[in-house]
Amino acid sequence: MDGILETKDLYFYYAGSTSGALEHVNIKITKGKKTAILGSNGAGKSTLFYNFNGVYSPSLGEVLYEGKPIKYSKKALRSLRSDVAVVLQNPDDQIFCSTVGEDVAFGPRNLGLSEKDVAERVELAMFQTGITMLKDKGTLQLSYGQRKRLALAGAIAMKPKVLIMDEPTAGLDPQMANEVMEMANQLHHLGTTVVISTHDVNLAYGWADEINVLRMSKIIYSGTSEGFYSDIKLVHTAGLMAPAMFSINKNHCDMNGVEEAPFPTSLPELVSKMSSERPKSGMMLILSITDGLTEDEMLKATGPLGGPRVGVYGTAARKAVFRGKLHADYVFNGIDNCLLECVNGKNSVLCCEGRMVDIVTDRIERLKQFGTSVGYEIREV
Amino acid sequence: MDIFETMDLFHSYKNSKVESLKNINIKVGKGKKTALLGANGAGKSTLFYHFNGVFKPKSGTVLFDGKPMEYTKDALAELRSDVSVMLQNPDEQIFSATVEEDIAFGMLNQGMVREEIDARIDEVLSMVGMTEYRMRPTQQLSYGQRKRVAFAGAIATHPKVLIMDEPTAGLDPQMAQETLEIADQLHIGGTDVIISTHDVDLAYAWADEIHVLRNGTLVYSGVSEGFYKDSVAVALAGLMPPAMFAIDSNLTEICGIGNGKYPHTRAELLSKMAVKDTKTGTLYGIPVDDYIDQAMIDCVLAHAEEGAAVGIYGIQTRRIAYKEALRLDYVFDGMENCLIEVMNGNDAVIYYDRSLSDMVIGKVVKVSGFGLKIPFEVRGGL
Fold first, then answer.
1. What mean pLDDT comes out for the span A305-312?
2. Which 328-357 residues of chain B touch chain A by CB within 8 A?
3. A262: cis peptide before it, omega within 30°?
4. What is the ipTM of this complex?
5. N or C: more exposed end of chain B, with fewer CB within 10 A?
6. Which chain B residues touch A40 with a CB distance below 8 Å?
7. Average pLDDT score, chain A
8. For the whole model, what pTM was predicted?
9. Is the dihedral of CA B102, B106, B110, B112 positive or negative?
10. Please, which residues bridge with residue A166 across strands?
11. Are A215 and A40 in contact (CB under 8 A)?
């Protein structure tokens, strides 16, 4: 597998400190994988990120980007940072300009792009993060959640190959957190390698393909989530706890003498696995949205009142539903909720951004392992 | 009886035409673990500031302990010795140069004598696990440590009510767990604990009653399940249902295992799901005062040798367990994990703070009530 970012025997000491903030860290971020870096407060997560984008240079060892050691000349760093974008935990550390539009444009402009290209990137990044309406607003007038989106928009506008997000959902309420993770999925799906650091084990469990766990400046685990959480002593040593989904599955399997694998990482998977008797599963109609969605199209999909429940997935789909003043039952967490309906023997309709339909069909495919086979139809609208 | 009550409370910030609180009529029950839920900007913190008199209502009344609040300097000083607020960001609360001075601050303001202050500092630093940091400059502390110092300062005055704004935000899972254990401990000691959060999972497992704010309006007061049953109200409030609620309601609907009870924890869910005639083990409880002696350790080891899992519950027990380097299987979430071991047919032993006895027994009874009876015996130190 291709390592897009890699460290070799990396040590990092803060000035004046004799204990390493990172010690002997060998980590490989695989291209195209969703990677989470886990660890308790102070374990070294943020320090590692600053080594990835060249803000810090290693005290010992080296950092490789696309197989080549990072160079720390001004020119090399500029090129690195257009490829590797970091979204900081606190958006205020990242927002400099007085209006939203200017702030998003800041990075692309520094890349020396034409004003036309800059404008295009700004539009797209604001659209993807749902802040288009805020373009002319002063950055000081934004709420915390809006500032967090703005910081993300600024990073996306760089069109990075790797997007590193430090505690992306910290301080956000559940719906906003859900939206941010959807955006991360979307970017990943479109080819960006997304890395998040978090101590939210529940979030990381459902999301990450691979995890790396830091404890007191050292990497103590790299691999799948299940492998880590199966070793509860190691989990506790790392200052973490097992995710609820993992624990419930384990406890349920132990009590009923069932194999722990396959490991459910989402509600539909868990419910499907835990329910021994189920009705015949429902069908899902996926409305693949390219631009907007009309009332007629929605009515055709749901039928008259009392039809199947409707979910939404993707920022663009959410906008289409809002703009068309259409009714949806699950505006957030649409995939999970629609799949749950199907597990429960009911049909459902998912309004999905066209480019993200594959994510949905992958989830339907995955659900088969847990005993539920959901039939589906994709309808372009 | 209510500890706080507001009547037709309105509030707006200076120079703002928008009302940040609109016609709030809330009753916060005495002796209840209360959670205030809502999305960012719903008005949670604004309401808190009315509870400790920092904000005065634009119109309407706030009652504390049945009496309308007064806003004179003396009345406010008295109120704030009864009502402690722990802010989300510890930096807004830590003023002094050293940990010791910072914790002493509130007590000095109350005119407490130095010996008493010193004793209280010892007590609260031990509770939050920061004894060795007493003389440290506050500037050198990590975020988690600053959060603990702020917590210690808030509880040192032995308030009647402790209000915590997002107490676990920014903390890693173990620290979050410890914070809630301390909150439980204070609650059982008679302090009314109110937390504000948008962590629905945390609130679901912890709170007896919830109040939900949306755009400055109170949209729900009551038990959690009553709120989450109304998925439209949940969505409008900017929230999502807790995982435990969602798992249970889906399984109930699919398998028809409904017994009308709502599990709020893993152990309760598994108890509800368990098939009839599941063979359980036994849970042995070892209440701990301020020491763990060899007899207790031997008793636990004897069980452990026969395969029992060992857990701990309570702050004091945790400190002693670390100091004595006890053999433990579950350092965190001990009660929950031991209950599950027992449901799994294994024995389990739990060391717990004696002051938490009622809570331990309460949890055993509660989990048993979901379907699977948990045998429980108290051992040693009687």
1. 87
2. 329, 331-333, 340, 343-344
3. yes
4. 0.85
5. C
6. 144, 172-175
7. 92
8. 0.89
9. negative
10. A197
11. yes
